[in-house]
Structure formats: structure tokens, C-alpha cells
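Q: For a teaching handout, I want to show students what a protein-ligand complex looks like in C-alpha cell form. Below are the inputs, and the small molecule is adenosine-5'-triphosphate. Please produce the holo structure.
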Amino acid sequence: MISIQSITKKYNHGPTLTFPDWIIQDEEQWLLLGASGSGKSTLLNIISGLLKPDSGEIKINGTDIYSLPLKDMDRFRGQSIGIVFQKPHLIKSLDIFDNIALASSLAGLKINKSRVMTLLESLGLAEKRKNFPDELSQGQLQRVSIARALINNPSLLIADEPTSSLDDENAENVISILTEQAAGNHASLVIATHDKRVRNRVSKEYLL
Ligand SMILES: Nc1ncnc2c1ncn2[C@@H]1O[C@H](COP(=O)(O)OP(=O)(O)OP(=O)(O)O)[C@@H](O)[C@H]1O
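A: Here is the structure, written as C-alpha cells, with adenosine-5'-triphosphate included.
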């Protein structure tokens, strides 16, 4: 369970943002909605352990993430949260298999080769495992970033605007992949989006 309570964030020379409390139960799927500038990216960064709030608590399975020493927090974050960014941010000099495996090493975990292969297979990427990021299409790269986000069996999978640059058919596919992969991997899912097409697919909504 993820619990978000009494969070505020004041930027220097910027607004003070306050966020409604939010409980995300295990395996629930949510949309994070809000107008441009309402604080979606800020909240995702706070939940992901990347931006310390000025007040309030984020608890993941009972652990207050900002109470951890920095090194423990990095590790905890790498093991508990998988993030699919708008752009994949893969390492160009590593092949697809190694890009995914790297996420385990960075989180202080042993590489589980058969899990890497299982994820690649379930995302239709097995035959691309030895290719480099430059050799894949945008849609394939996005699926690689979903595999990378899931490799450590996170409790929470976060996707930030995953469909904003996609046509209807590809947007449908990505939402199906995210919802199915989150369910199949027993992760909760949060999709931040403006996209009305996504609203028909995920019923729970947290609105900023
Ligand atoms: N580093 C910063 N310094 C000052 N103000 C900031 C900073 N980052 C964000 N803000 C402000 O905080 C508010 C929330 O920004 P945020 O990026 O979280 O919104 P958002 O809902 O993700 O927007 P969008 O949908 O346009 O990406 C905005 O008013 C923004 O200008």
C-alpha cells in the first residue's frame, strides 16, 4: 500500500503546492489527472523519492521513504518503484537485455536473467535482446522502458504521459500493456495523463 499524506511543496520563486491525501492499495490502477501546471510532475517526483516535500509523508508498504538515509532510499526506490518516463532514457552502448538488467544492479539486486527474458517475451521483444537502442522503433523502446520499470518487481509502476505522442491505435496498445503488465506483476499502477483516451480505460482518478 502507498499512502500520501499532508504533502506540500514550495518552490523557490514558485507556488506552494498542496496535494490531497491519497491511498493506493496493492494492485490498484489509478489515473493522475490535472491541468498543466497543477503539480502532476511534482507529485510523481515526490512519490518516486526524487523530490523531498516540505511537509507530509509518503509511505510505501509502511516505510516513510524520506526518513531513510539517502543510500538506503536510493536502493529502496529502485526496488519498490518502477518509472516509465515520457522518453525512454536508455544507455546507447548497452544492448536491450543489459539495459534492463542494469536497473537491477543499480538497485543493489542480483540480475535475474530468466526474469529479464520473461519480461522481454511478454512485451514481444525477445528477438531484440541483443540489439541496441538505436536499432529499435519508438514503440519498441517504450516497451523496453516498461520492462526496465518492472524488472525489480516494484510495488508501484508509474507512467508519466505515456500516450501523449501516440496515435489512437498505439495509445490503446500502450495502455493495454501497462494495465496488463502491472496486473501480471502484482504492481499498483499510476498513469499521469491529459489524454482523454486513457480515461475510458482506468476507472480510479486522483485529480489535482
Ligand atoms: N523547479 C521549479 N521552480 C519553480 N517553480 C516550479 C519548478 N518546477 C515546477 N514549478 C511550478 O510548479 C507548478 C507545478 O508544476 P508541475 O511541473 O508539477 O505541473 P504539471 O501538472 O506536471 O504540469 P504539465 O502538465 O504542464 O507538465 C507550476 O506552476 C510550475 O511552474
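A: Two things your students might notice: The pocket of adenosine-5'-triphosphate is lined by residues 11, 13-15, 34, 36-42 (CB under 6 Å). The first strand starts at residue 2 and ends at 10.
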